[in-house]
Design a protein that fits this description.
There is one protein chain. The chain has 2 domains: 59 residues, Roll (Ubiquitin-like (UB roll)), CATH 3.10.20; 197 residues, 3-Layer(aba) Sandwich (Rossmann fold), CATH 3.40.50.720. It has 8 helices and 13 strands. Strand 6, helix 4 and strand 7 form a beta-alpha-beta unit. It is of the alpha/beta class.
């Protein structure tokens, strides 16, 4: 008598197994040295019976998934359609402070294929209040610290790191291969220079900037606006840094994740759902 088969997903890959198979038999077939077993995101016993549609993850503690397995795991969460678009993308990030360091981490978790990052600065103790660095990064170049952080999240992401101050003369060379450039700089004149240079000299590149993210509260005032076909700005366009209204981790983080979310929408060619009407 032929056993009835059920469809399951094992470490991100679709498989058919006999109905009534337990986790132990599957583990011994797929990954005998696994010592952590999860079904549908929860720990399970080796004797648990598999059911139609179950998603099973076998892990050996401390082992880094190989590139193929890593890709399958991302695709199982994001869908293959989204993951393929993420893998093909090259994203530039200008500045690795509160915005840039957070955007880098979000994009690494989203499976972006190639990041181009640029910053001339070093991590100092005062950066820890809103930037994604740790005590052990103090004194490191920010580009080096970001590479270290990302390698612990997505070791197969390509990163091109430039420890340099961005100018009109080098922006095109640094970001020429990018599909999208995210402006994460501090000073208004630097922000304007970056945006104007990309718009003028890199005609195929879209820019995502930020303006008005200082202070605390008013989370829902931070929105995504389309200013032109190639320029988007995140923020409330009003909250500038001043006495009593500093840059703080909460609002900076909200803006950074608006930027990262817009990257996905643009790559999937569907930005309209996240864009507010320009006042």
């Amino acid at each position: 008598m032929v056993s009835q088969m059920i469809d399951i997903i094992v470490n991100g890959k679709r498989e058919q197994v006999p109905s009534g198979m337990n986790v132990r038999k599957l583990r011994d077939w797929v990954k005998p040295d696994a010592n952590i077993m999860l079904i549908n995101g929860y720990p399970c016993s080796l004797d648990e019976i598999l059911k139609q549609g179950d998603q099973i993850l076998f892990i050996r503690k401390g082992e880094v998934p190989d590139p193929h397995e890593f890709d399958l795991l991302f695709a199982s969460r994001h869908s293959r359609k989204v993951q393929e678009q993420m893998k093909k993308a090259t994203i530039g990030i200008a500045g690795l402070g509160g915005l840039g360091s957070a955007v880098c981490i979000a994009l690494a978790r989203m499976g972006i294929g190639h990041l181009i990052v640029a910053d001339y600065d070093f991590v100092e103790p005062s950066n820890l209040h809103r930037q994604q660095y740790s005590i052990n990064h103090i004194g490191m170049a920010k580009v080096d610290a970001v590479v270290e952080i990302i390698s612990g999240i997505n070791p197969y992401m390509k990163i091109s790191a430039h420890r340099v101050r961005l100018t009109v003369n080098n922006i095109s060379d640094i970001f020429g291969d990018a599909d999208i450039v995210i402006e994460c700089l501090d000073q208004p004149e630097e922000k304007a220079m970056l945006i104007e240079t990309v718009i003028e000299y890199l005609p195929d590149v879209t820019v995502i900037g930020a303006s008005g993210i200082a202070g605390y509260g008013r989370s829902n005032h931070i929105v995504t606006r389309r200013l032109t076909n190639r320029l988007f700005v995140i923020g409330d366009l009003a909250s500038e840094v001043k006495v009593g209204q500093p840059l703080m981790a909460g609002r900076v983080g909200i803006a950074a994740h608006h930027q990262a979310n817009l990257v996905v929408c643009l790559l999937m060619k569907d930005p309209n759902d996240v864009v507010a009407d320009v006042d």
